[in-house]
Amino acid sequence: MAALSNPYIAGNPVRGQMNFVGRLDILRDVQRVLRNPNANAIVLYGQRRIGKTSILFQLEQQLAETKEYLPVYFDLHDKTDLSLAEILYRLAAQIARYVDITGLDRAQFDDEGSFFRSDFLPEAIRRTNRSLILLFDEFDTLDRPYKGQVAASFLPYLQRWMSRTVDIHFVLAMGRRPEDLSPTMLNAFKQVRARHVSLMDMAESLAIVRQSEDNHSLYWAESGVNRICYWTQGHPYLTQLLCGEIWEEAYDEAPSDPPTVSADDVDLAVEAALEQGANAFQWIWNGLPPGERIVMAAMAGTGKLTITREQLQTTLQQDGVRLLLPELELAPENLLKWDLLRRTPNGYRFAIPLLQRWVMENKPLRRVKSELDSLEPMAEKLFREAVDSYKLGDLGDTDLLLRRALALNPNHVQARLLLGRVYLANGRPLEAVGVTESAYRSNPQVAQQGLVAALLSLAETQADQNDQWRTFNRVLRIDPRQPLAREKQEAIMRGWAEKALAQGDYEAALRAYDQIGDTENSTAVRRQMRWQGLAARLPRLSRSQAAK
User: Fold this and answer.
1) Which residue, among 470, 427, 469, 420, has the nearest Cα to 448 in the 3D structure?
2) Quick one: 103 and 29 in the same domain?
3) pLDDT in tens, 477-535
4) Does some domain include residue 272?
5) pLDDT tens string 343-362
6) Do 237 and 51 form a contact (C-beta atoms < 8 A)?
7) Are 487 and 463 in contact (CB under 8 A)?
8) Which run of H or E residues covers position 305?
9) Any idea what the CATH number is for the domain that residue 360 is in?
10) CB-based contacts of 86: which residues, under 8 Å, 6+ apart?
11) What is the SS3 assignment for 319?
12) Are strands 41-45 and 69-75 parallel, antiparallel or unpaired?
């Protein structure tokens, strides 16, 4: 059998018209903007790995072939620390490759953008008889709070540029919905048309799956095609990923003829696809806000195909997550808009079962809950200020700041733990236990040490040994090997045993010594109980013998 190649592309954007599938409606919308004299820009937005970069590459190729347009692709990712002069120089260098301009001098590009706007661009446009189309990828990096100068300088420069030019068009691809942008950026581009890049329809998905039939390397039974569609639901990257893994596993067996894929073959390849695409799944996950991650982890953890809003709330509350923040309340609706959830008559379900499987295996709720602290930025800011006050010894200011932070974000575990330490420093252990216990219910691993410390402090203030015993029991349920709690309980039990002996209650004393593992005293009590029993019998034995 002749050597064949795997036709599925997973991991890199698709280049080349032969490998690109579907998206005709999106390409058509871009063409309409190019023909519209009153519009010069369009935004393409969608979740990570949905195919936005592949669409830009396809636009670059298709528009270049018309000889009417000069498309130039420019990726803004990893350029957030550049000055305006540097980023314009790099953009100019990219444009220069297509218009026969050589010997660009970096020193000519200034931080006001004057040379780029007044000298370079007019010369570049003069050298081509085509309309310049700039394809900006990762455009929403301009809307993030980086320390670099791009967001502060390039964004307003680009806004002015777009508002004044008529002979240049812009296609802006980004990973966030327009309504999620900052007010500044949203206002700057509110007149620009936006197009959602979503999951593919069935026909487009089938075109991806059947690529192996085009090169006669792998054939698909109807059950195999249906199973692929079930697992990936039209997600282009995940479809390529799973099909590619199936192709590789089929050829690991060195077949003499092209194999035919069944539903069982698809299911057997799922785990390998999850492992192979681990970085891509993590990339998709990292693009989600904390509230959306919490909801997805909670849903996946139930193991149910569908879940009602009430069941979701119950699941979160049982895990110590309080659904009081708008971010958590709105998360399911946001996930619906991102095509990550689907609404059903019975509630919500994952839109993509393959993603649900990955979340279930890699993102348990107990681990994801640590992200709750960052849900409310102002609460996090107040918490940081509280930490600084605590370090300076200003407990009153720390208390006030922490209460304000928790009013904004009741799920802020670190704020609750620090408030517990403030209560302890002020001699209020009972309140410290209350606030740290709440943190423990939310995140046991993070809050364990703080709750143990609060309980041990509480025990020191309790005059009743029964209350102390119960408090130490709570400590040992949290940390069974906690040495101080064990030592204190042993001392209490030993005191109870000695008191019982003094009162002649040998059985109570024996139980106490047995419970703390004091074999020496247990043996002594048993010996004394035997002598006591024997002494009680002696008078009866004497009277019996006298009667004889």
Assistant:
1) 420
2) yes
3) 999 889 998 888 888 888 888 888 788 787 877 787 787 777 888 888 788 787 776 66
4) yes
5) 999 899 999 999 999 999 99
6) yes
7) no
8) none
9) 1.10.10.10
10) 106, 109
11) coil
12) unpaired
